[in-house]
Amino acid sequence: MGVNLQKGQRVDLAKSGDSLSKVVVGLGWDPVKQNSNGLLGGLFGAKQADVDCDASALLLDANGKLKGKQYVVFYNHKKSDCGSVWSSGDNLTGGGDGDDEQIFVELNKVPADVQKIVFTVTIYDCIARKQSFGMIQNAFIRIFDPANNQELLKYNITENFAGKTGLLVGEIYRHNGGWKFAAIGEGTQDTSIADVWNRYL
Questions:
Q1: Helix and strand numbers, DSSP H then E, in the chain
Q2: How far apart are CA 116 and CA 96, in angstroms?
Q3: Which strand (E) or helix (H) includes residue 168?
């Protein structure tokens, strides 16, 4: 059974000398059911909004800076150039149970100049679609060991992010030769993945 975290909490992920070499970061969310007006809405009940959330990972140096777009993993660049971080691909609706998107991290292959990996979620085309994270519920980030599928930790994000179009979910960072995880859960006004990486340049 993994550790359930609250916002701001930090926990050891892999201590120096641990055999844990690869982790999977699972991110999930559900669209909020929207009430439909009219006879058909009354007959068939609420419907889910089609919200396309995109998970990404940013590999940062010791100064918290992104050295280039090749250090960003997202739906259009599914693997970092160093090969240590890659994405499962894009879930367009958030429908279904379990993880909506997964990001794989080979801890022992992360370049020495990468100090931190930040995980974020943005809403595709949120301005044109007039969407925000107020339309999302049951958001979470969890980390598990793919060797045995054992969940190491989970952070359920319970805040209401109405009006927020970006979300800094959590981060993995180096600590005393090992790795730790921090639960962030901070809403932002970033409207695209480009907005997110620009804040770290």
A1: 3, 14
A2: 30
A3: strand 166-175
Which superfamily does CATH assign the domain made up of 3-198 to?
sav2460 like domains (2.60.60.30)
Stated pTM of the model: 0.86
| Burial class of residue 20 in the structure, from the number of CB atoms within 10 Å of its CB (0-12 exposed, 13-18 middle, 19+ buried) | middle
Q: What is the mean pLDDT of residues 26-33?
A: 82
Q: Please count the other Cβ atoms lying within 10 Å of the Cβ belonging to residue 17.
A: 7
Rg, the chain, Cα only: 17
Q: Check pLDDT > 90 for residue 170.
A: yes
Beta-bridge mates of residue 121: 55, 167
Q: Tell me which of 130 and 114 has the higher pLDDT.
A: 114
Q: What residue ranges do the domains of the chain occupy?
A: 3-198
The residue among 137, 185, 192 whose CA lies nearest residue 165 is 192
For tokens 């931190």, name the residue: 116
Burial environment of residue 97 by CB neighbours within 10 A (0 to 12, 13 to 18, 19 or more): exposed
What SS3 state is found at 30? strand
Cα-Cα-Cα-Cα dihedral sign, residues 147, 182, 196, 90: positive
Q: Do the bridges between strand 178-188 and strand 166-175 make them parallel or antiparallel, or are there none, so unpaired? A: antiparallel
107 closest CA partner among 1, 32, 18, 196: 18
Distance CA 60, CA 67 (A): 7
